């Protein structure tokens, strides 16, 4: 779908390199598409397992009188909502581009990740408030019931985390995984607190461990939030160096210099680039274009817009301050 510039092409025409099915297959990205399509079913399975165990945990919490289990069940319900949002975003992201959304719907996964991160911050705040109240007003807890249910929850969360970690790591799935890891750590905390309460009767251990887990999850949430905001602000991906890419393009045979270089994130696995290349001769542009595409593809950048400009241009610009007088005046 790309068009190479002709020697007689106007220096301000653009060369557009767009992704398509054949380019991805030749570039070895068929596997990435398989994983992307696989993200939806993985998220749905994670949703069903998490929501099912939340019901079991809620019933166990009512039977044992454990506020910790009821709170963790509520936490898992909120996580189920985040997984549902992630699954919907993964499905929507598969829709092809339209005339109104020419880049497609990949950015919806970034928005879902943002919603999940903000949701996680609210959950952390809510759990912290409850933990502080429990420290001020300790309650009787059935340590044996908490230990058994927490052990089952730990096994389930390990399975769900494994399911998500072995799929494609988009911002969307990472946002969902963040909630699952929060559940996993919560199960560890509940397991430890249940054992301590069962053997010592010290109920304060439960809110203390809850606060520790909240601190860890808040740090992870803020790291992912920074990456999401970087993408939404059209920033350069954290794994990409603008200076390195610019030097690489400028070092290609036939390229004199590079300017107006822009790099941004379209979606989790799609990086876009546009640049103006000053070439020694427009006659050599097809070769320069092919070399540029290959070099950028090796850096994971395949949505490219390149504009060739001749080294010795006949275009003359009016110096600043000079009046635009007609010839002969």
Compact description:
The protein is of the alpha+beta class. The chain has helices spanning 21-26, 30-64, 67-93, 107-136, 143-165, 171-200, 205-232, 242-250, 285-298, and strands at residues 15-17, 255-267, 270-279, 301-310. A 4-stranded mixed sheet has the order 1-4-3-2.
Q: How would you sum up this structure, described in words?
A:
There is one protein chain. With 329 residues, the chain is α+β, with helices and mostly antiparallel strands. It folds into two domains: 201 residues, Cation efflux protein transmembrane domain (Alpha-lytic protease prodomain-like, Up-down Bundle), CATH 1.20.1510; 74 residues, Alpha-Beta Plaits. Helices cover 61% and strands 11% of the residues. It is built from nine helices and four strands, in the order βααααααααββαβ. The chain has a four-stranded mixed beta sheet. Helix 4 runs parallel beside helix 6, helix 5 packs antiparallel against helix 6 and helix 6 packs antiparallel against helix 7. The longest helix is centred in the first third of the chain and has 35 residues.
Question: What labels describe this entry?
Answer:
329 residues; alpha+beta; Alpha-lytic protease prodomain-like; Alpha-Beta Plaits; four-stranded mixed beta sheet; 9 helices; disordered N terminus; disordered C terminus
Output mean pLDDT: 75
Distance between the termini: 49 Å
Number of helices: 9
- What's the domain count? 2
Rg from Cα: 27 Å
Task: Spell out the CATH superfamily of the largest domain.
Answer: Cation efflux protein transmembrane domain
Quaternary structure classification: single chain
Helical proportion?
A: 55-70%
